[in-house]
C-alpha cells in the first residue's frame, strides 16, 4: 500500500497520553486520507481529514466502526474507573468489541497499546486484564495485529497522578544505570510509542507482532 492510496484510520482513546499524540501524527501523515475518531466528546482539532463520531461504547453502532487500520489507545485506572469491573470494561470489553465489529466491517490491521507485564495468568489484576485483551485479540485472527507493551510512560497528562509522577522522577534518576537486562524497564516517552504505532501501521507484514518497550525506544 503506497502513501497515495486512499486509506482510512480509526482511533479510539484519542484523549489519552499516547492517543492524543497519535491523533496529531495520523492527521499529518499522507498515508491516510481520512481519520475517524470514536469519542465521547469532541476535540479542538480542526482538520479536513478528521471525522469525529460521538460514540456510545456501551451501545456501539457497528456501521460507524469501519476503517482499514484500527488504533486502540483505550486505558484507564481502577481509581478513575471506580471499580475493577468498570476498569475491565474499558481495558478489555471495549477494545474487543471494537476489534470484533471493525473486523466484520473489513478492517485489515489492529494496533493496540497494552502494557509491559501483560499476562492473562498474572496474579496482578492490571497485568491479567492486559493479558486477557491480548489473548482475545489474537483469537480474532486479524491479518495483522500489533501489540505494544510500553514501560512507564513519560509525558504531559491532562490529569496528575501522584504515583505516576513519582515514578517519572525515579525513572529519570535511575535512567543512567538502566542498561543490558534492565533496559526493557526504562521509562519511555509516550511520543515514541505513538511514532512506533504509525510506523508499524505502514508495514505490510501479516501476523501477530508484540513490540516490547526496549524496541519502542528506537522510535
From TrEMBL:
<dbReference type="Pfam" id="PF01370">
    <property type="entry name" value="Epimerase"/>
</dbReference>
<dbReference type="GO" id="GO:0016020">
    <property type="term" value="C:membrane"/>
</dbReference>
<dbReference type="InterPro" id="IPR036291">
    <property type="entry name" value="NAD(P)-bd_dom_sf"/>
</dbReference>
<feature type="domain" description="NAD-dependent epimerase/dehydratase">
    <location>
        <begin position="10"/>
        <end position="115"/>
    </location>
</feature>
<keyword id="KW-0472">Membrane</keyword>
<protein>
    <submittedName>
        <fullName>Oxidoreductase</fullName>
    </submittedName>
</protein>
<dbReference type="InterPro" id="IPR001509">
    <property type="entry name" value="Epimerase_deHydtase"/>
</dbReference>
Amino acid at each position: 500500500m503506497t502513501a497515495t492510496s486512499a486509506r482510512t484510520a480509526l482511533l479510539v482513546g484519542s484523549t489519552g497520553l499516547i492517543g492524543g499524540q497519535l491523533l496529531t501524527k495520523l492527521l499529518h501523515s499522507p498515508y491516510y486520507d481520512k481519520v475517524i475518531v470514536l469519542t465521547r466528546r469532541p476535540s479542538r482539532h480542526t482538520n479536513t481529514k478528521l471525522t469525529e463520531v460521538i460514540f456510545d461504547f456501551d451501545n456501539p453502532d457497528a456501521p460507524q466502526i469501519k476503517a482499514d487500520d484500527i488504533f486502540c489507545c483505550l486505558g484507564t485506572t481502577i481509581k478513575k474507573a471506580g471499580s475493577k469491573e468498570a476498569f475491565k470494561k474499558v481495558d478489555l470489553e471495549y477494545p474487543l468489541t471494537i476489534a470484533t465489529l471493525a473486523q466484520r466491517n473489513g478492517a485489515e490491521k489492529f494496533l493496540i497499546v497494552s502494557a509491559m507485564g501483560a499476562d492473562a495468568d498474572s496474579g496482578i489484576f492490571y497485568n491479567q486484564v492486559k493479558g486477557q485483551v491480548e489473548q482475545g485479540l489474537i483469537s480474532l485472527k486479524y491479518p495483522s495485529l500489533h501489540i505494544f507493551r510500553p514501560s512507564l510512560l513519560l509525558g504531559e497528562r491532562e490529569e496528575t497522578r501522584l504515583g505516576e509522577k513519582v515514578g517519572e522522577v525515579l525513572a529519570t534518576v535511575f535512567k543512567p544505570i538502566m542498561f543490558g537486562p534492565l533496559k526493557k524497564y526504562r521509562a519511555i516517552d509516550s511520543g515514541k510509542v505513538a511514532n512506533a504505532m504509525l510506523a508499524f501501521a505502514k508495514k505490510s507484514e501479516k501476523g501477530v507482532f508484540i513490540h516490547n518497550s526496549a524496541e519502542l525506544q528506537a522510535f
